[in-house]
Amino acid sequence: MERAVDELSKLPGIGRKTALRLALHMLRQNTADVETLSTAILNMSREIKYCNHCHNISDTELCEICKNPKRDPRVVCVVEDIRDIMAIENTGQYKGIYHVLNGIISPVEGIGPGDINLGTLISKVNDNEVDELIFALPTTIEGDTTSFYIYKQLETKKIQITTIARGVAIGDDLEYTDEVTLGRSIINRTPYPGSGNN
């Protein structure tokens, strides 16, 4: 029981009290249900990969979005993590592809540009694979810092750089934004300040 509580408490947002409650709940379940849960988690860990092109989760080399011929591969939406892709996809308003940074620059937490997926994004732009880059990062200091850093790396490139409209409230995470607001933010995206697209 102690080992189960220790392992469960390592999950984000799960303290020891919640971990103990979850462990006790599983103890009351029949063995088949617990085995089904543990098998699903194990299979997810073994079989889910990251897309070679955009870093989205996938069970193949390329994710379903990157493989979809109806998507515009020259319009790239830059997001912090996979939850943001799910939020934007739920709006049904976006027809380009994504680039998942898997984090944002946060000096306070010791996360610098080298700790997130920036290299492949810069390479895509340098290889003339991108016409428009859309920043859809959190409306926080860290999100704005990351957007500004990427913009400075690419400001000499001949691409359009936009950011989603600020219908998303300052400090809000995309995953908690309602679909209508998020959809309108994608449609009404604005040129990134100073990008020369004004």
Describe the structure.
This protein is 40% helix and 14% strand. By secondary structure, it is an alpha/beta fold. The protein folds into 2 domains: 2-47, Helicase, Ruva Protein, domain 3 (Orthogonal Bundle), CATH 1.10.8; 66-191, Dna Topoisomerase Vi A Subunit, Chain: A, domain 2, CATH 3.40.1360. Helix 1 crosses helix 2. The chain is elongated.
Q: Can you identify the CATH class of the largest domain?
A: Alpha Beta
Total strand count, please? Answer: 7
Question: What's the overall geometry?
Answer: elongated
Give the biggest sheet: 5 strands, mixed
CATH architectural arrangement of the largest domain: 3-Layer(aba) Sandwich
Number of helices: 8
Overall mean confidence score, pLDDT = 89
- Numbering strands along the chain, what is their spatial order in the largest sheet? 4-3-5-6-7
Reconstruct the topology from this structure.
Layout: H1 2-8, H2 16-28, H3 31-47, E1 49-50, E2 57-58, H4 64-67, E3 72-79, H5 82-89, E4 96-100, H6 119-126, E5 132-135, H7 141-154, E6 160-163, H8 179-187, E7 190-191
Parallel strand pairs: 3-4, 3-5, 5-6
Antiparallel strand pairs: 1-2, 6-7
Task: Give keywords.
5-stranded mixed sheet; 198 residues; 2 domains; two-stranded antiparallel ribbon; 7 strands; 40% helix; Dna Topoisomerase Vi A Subunit, Chain: A, domain 2; alpha/beta; 8 helices; Helicase, Ruva Protein, domain 3
